[in-house]
Design brief:
Layout (H helix, E strand, L loop, with lengths): L9 H8 L14 H6 L4 H4 L1 E4 L3 E5 L9 E5 L11 H22 L3 E5 L16 E6 L7 H5 L8 H11 L5
Antiparallel strand pairs: 1-2, 2-3, 3-5, 4-5
Helix pairs in contact: 4-6
Length: 171
C-alpha cells in the first residue's frame, strides 16, 4: 500500500511570497536569536535554558505545543562553523531538551532535527538551530491544510513554565 497524498496548494503562494526574515542574511545585528541571547528576562524571551555556548528557546510560531529550538549563542550559519565546545554543547543540550519535553508532555515520540539552508525550510538560515518537538500517535489535524490554521492547546507562557520545570539540573 502506498502513502496517500494531500495537496496543500496554499503552500506555494506562501513560499513565493516569503521575504528573508531579519537575520536570515547573516547579519547578527538583526538576528532574533542573537537578540534573545542577550535578553535579561528569560520568560519574556521564552528562553527555557541557557548554557555556556548554547540556549534553548520556545519556537514563537510552533508546529505543536512544546516546540523548542536549541541555538548556539554565537551567530553561525552552519554546523561545521561551530567550534568543538559549541558543537558538543549543541548536541548535549538537544538531548537534554528531548528529556525535558518527554518529562513535561509524555509524548509518544519526539521530532528532532535541523533545517540547513533556506531551501530546506530554515526560516533563519543565518543562525543554525535544532528543533525539538513532541509528537503523539494519531495526532493528525487537518486545520492546517484546510484553513491555514494551527490549533495550540496551551499558551506560550504556560508551555515555558512547564518546560522550565521539567528541565533536568546539570549532572
Amino acid at each position: 500500500m502506498s502513502a496517500g497524498r494531500i495537496w496543500a496548494g496554499w503552500r506555494s503562494a506562501y513560499v513565493a511570497s516569503v521575504d528573508s526574515p531579519a537575520g536570515a542574511d547573516g547579519d547578527p545585528g538583526t538576528c532574533v536569536f542573537c537578540g534573545l541571547a542577550g535578553s535579561e528576562d528569560a520568560e519574556a524571551a521564552l528562553v527555557v535554558h541557557r548554557g555556556s555556548t548554547c540556549m534553548v528557546v520556545l519556537n514563537a510560531y510552533p508546529y505543536t505545543t512544546g516546540h523548542m529550538l536549541v541555538v548556539p549563542k554565537r551567530h553561525v550559519a552552519r554546523l561545521d562553523d561551530l567550534d568543538r565546545e559549541e558543537f558538543e554543547e549543541l548536541w548535549t543540550t538537544t538531548v537534554a531538551a528531548i528529556g525535558a519535553v518527554e518529562r513535561a508532555y509524555g509524548p509518544d515520540g519526539v521530532n528532532m532535527g535541523a533545517n540547513l539552508g533556506r531551501a530546506a525550510g530554515a526560516g533563519l538560515p543565518g543562525h543554525v538551530h535544532m528543533h525539538v518537538l513532541p509528537r503523539w500517535v494519531g495526532d493528525t489535524n487537518f486545520m492546517t491544510t484546510v484553513a491555514d490554521v494551527r490549533v495550540m492547546p496551551e499558551t506560550l507562557p504556560s508551555t515555558w513554565r512547564r518546560l522550565v520545570a521539567a528541565w533536568a539540573p546539570p549532572q
